[in-house]
Amino acid sequence: MFAFTYHRPDTLTQAVALLQTREEAKPLAGGQTLIATLKQRLAAPSDLVDLAALPDLRAISREDGRLVIGAMARHAEVEASPLVRACLPALAALAGLIGDPAVRNRGTLGGSIANNDPSADYPAACLALDATIITDRREIAAADFFTGLFETALEPDEIVIRVAFPLGGEGAYEKFRNPASRYAMAGVFIWRGEVAPGEALTGEILVRVAVTGAGQGGVFRWRDAETALAGAFCPAALEGLVPPADEMIEDIHGSGAYRAHLAGAMARRAVARLMVAGA
User: Which H or E run contains 35?
Assistant: First the structure.
């Protein structure tokens, strides 16, 4: 690990100032990726700005028809929150599938989406639920936030402070976990609800399908699945439908065709879960 200067600011203003005045500074949230990267000497920040002492960034509330979750909320806190379970049970369930207890008690919502690991779970929820990422200086729609593999629309000194999820409709998340890391080899979040202004619609219902863990470019909306489900919301509507295999990740854990198959299977499971929940 390379040497760095550690900071633990008491206010968001102090944290932003530190990031803006130190060229190679990095914010530290749960540290589940950054600390491992530092230990492997794959990163050499001049300063680490720890956000753990900013309690306002861990709040979970309901505001103006949205569920608002602070960026520093731990996965375990999202899973256990009575408010999340009541408003967006699929999001609470997703949080409970992340890693193991150690990871869930350290990792944070903001850290996960800011890192945008291609196998992370929260990006799929953000896309499918049409979330808004709120930073210290602006609001970014989830559709514009995730820009590529480990890439987001964030500026180097910009901090995610909370994420707002619109309420309404219903969702379900299913993933095929790597047995060692528990990362998603393919995870699919499906949401269905009423027509929103400006949304294109093929059938009588609005459907959003987001896939993580499989795409070479990271999380993505699976438009073909959305069209199929808008016409007939049932697992049979997805039979034989898979994302393009040549656009999927291929590594030691599985081929592109395998991950495409998993994405189709997880999507059908998510639809079946939603049908049971709505029965």
Answer: helix 34-39
| Fold type of domain 170-278 | Enolase-like; domain 1 (3.30.390)
Structure tokens that stand for 197 in this block? 């202004």
CB pairs under 8 A, 24+ apart, for 151-155?
151/116, 151/218, 152/113, 152/114, 152/116, 154/114
Domain boundaries, the chain: 1-49, 170-278
Mean pLDDT taken over the chain? 92
The full DSSP string for 204-238 is SSEEEEEEESSBTTSSEE-HHHHHHHHH--SGGGG
Predicted model pTM: 0.91
Cα separation of 208 and 229, whole Å? 9
DSSP state of 137: S
Calculate the alpha carbon distances from 79 to 60, 93, 141, 169, 279 in Å.
12, 6, 23, 19, 24
Fold observed for domain 1-49 = 3.30.43
In degrees and rounded to multiples of 5, residue 101 shows phi and psi of -55, -40
Render pLDDT for 132-162 as a digit per residue (tens, 0 to 9).
Answer: 999 999 999 999 999 999 999 999 889 999 9
| Per-residue pLDDT tens digits for 77-107 | 999 999 999 999 999 999 999 999 999 999 9
Strands, sheet with 47-50, edge to edge from the N-terminal-most edge strand = 5-7, 47-50, 25-28
- CA–CA–CA angle 153, 102, 110 (5° rounding): 15
